[in-house]
Task: structure prediction
Amino acid sequence: MRYHWAKELLQSWLKDHSLQEEPLYRSSGRLVDWAGMAASPLYADMIGEIREEAERLLDLPEPELTEELYERFEKTGNRLAYEGKYFERRRRLASFALMSLLDADKPAYMQALIGTIEAVLEEPTWCLPAHMRGQQIDRNIDLFSAETGFALSEIIVLLGSRLPERLRESMLGHIDRRLFVPYLSYGPYGWETAEHNWAAVCAGSIGAAALLVEQSAARKAAILVKTVETMNHYLAGFGEDGACLEGPGYWNYGFGYFVYFADLLNRATDGNADLFALDKVKAVSLFQQRCYLAGDRPANFSDALPHVSVHIGLSDYLADRFGEVEHPPLKLRAAYTDDHCARFAPALRNVLWFRPEARREANWKPGSWYLPDAQWFISRSVSSAGSFGFAAKGGSNDEPHNHIDVGHFILLSGDDPAVAADLGSGEYTADYFGEGRYTYDCNGAQGHSLPIVSGHPQQVGGASKARMPEAVTGERQDHFSLELADCYPSESGLQSLKRSFVLLKDEKSTLTVNDNFLFGESGGQVTEVIVTRCQPSLAEDGRIVLAGGQHMVELTYEAGLFRPAIVERPFVNHFGHEETYYRIHLIAEHSAKRSQQFALHFEFK
Result:
């Protein structure tokens, strides 16, 4: 099923409805009581974070976005220099706008907000330099230009006449010139048919902005027709299992903007245009509670971070709409400053959509799930000994934010360093998204727990994929297996590689990884690889100890099978900070055998 509403039909639904503050930002059927929320102990932590940040920013000057910083990306590939200042300005925009609503009696917030809005309007482009690359400065639309226009639109609606009329008119003119005109006249943009977060964020922001501030019903309807079509493409990027291949951080991001737009559209059309009607949307809504292994630690495949907090507003909104969606544990709520991009739309809804009265568990409920379209297997268990999480993936080596990781797995407990780790996303640079992508350990096969076969790692590409997945979940034991031979080049001599995982969920979990290799007549050489954040030490032949925190883990295998080697490796994380991890190489001693079977046992102690 695809959503489609003709322009004329949308226009007829829109003509009798106006998205002003009263119908748009209601809470439980009443107008938003900003002062009441600010005074309520139920919101104290959340609003305290916003106030603390706004007070800090009041003492700082407006950050300068210079031409030299802008050009540094093209000259060096460095994104952080310009983006740091750019996002600091967006943080000022969000903080001062929210505090102008929550504490209207303090004029310093409004004065600072006006200054920041004026600075944003003076920017030659709202796009990041990494997203320009040959585009015309007055015609390109990227994630952050769309988000900026959406934020300014909401600020206009929420603050209304409290903003100087001249400034409101200027904001409207910039939103029109930078978003609406190019969207209607200069496309199509690549993200209009994308099946990942760009589609939802860019189109959703533009469509939401049009619902909020575009005065022409015909023009508004024209924008909405395009936006809804792009949302069809975005949803096509999900299987019926609802898994987000980009990970939970990008679920927060892309699906969040889908929901923000869908909510506004639903309200503006009095429920006639309902993007939540598809079963797939409910499945995507359930992904969050299925993808976590323990606490704030998800199955962070692809460019996902090892720790991801929940957007409490988005989560509570979805839980209110779909009964099977859980209100998440409150301790996992993202703090106001957690979003280094300082996006206004989620920050606003974390306040407006938060349900302090909702029933919540202290931790995620235990369970096991197989997501067949993504070929992800996820299991989390809880006992008196602690919480334990396991995840493994099939899929292909040609996915959104792709890593070479088919057959890779994660094993962890509580807050301890991951026993079998996924490094997540590295620092985004030009080369990270260019020809050098797989030289980064975060992205390449070398940074994942995958065998090296006759000297060959897994290959990149859509043909490099898992086959014949089998998954069985149970109360005490889970089983997941995959055929991985297609992931290796023919030069490896590999005819079959069946990798299977057996997870025993006792008081403390035990994982066994079985790899069965079949080669051609000349045989092949195998090196098993384990990527870990625990410091490993060789205890004796057939036993390696992985030092955690609360738990120690023993990695055992048949003595005499392997020659072990441990390599400590540096990598740069998403925020530009250097970290280390360990790569355990288990080099098979009996090479050139046609059939080889290996079992690796991980036992928490």
In short: The two ends are 50 Å apart (CA to CA).
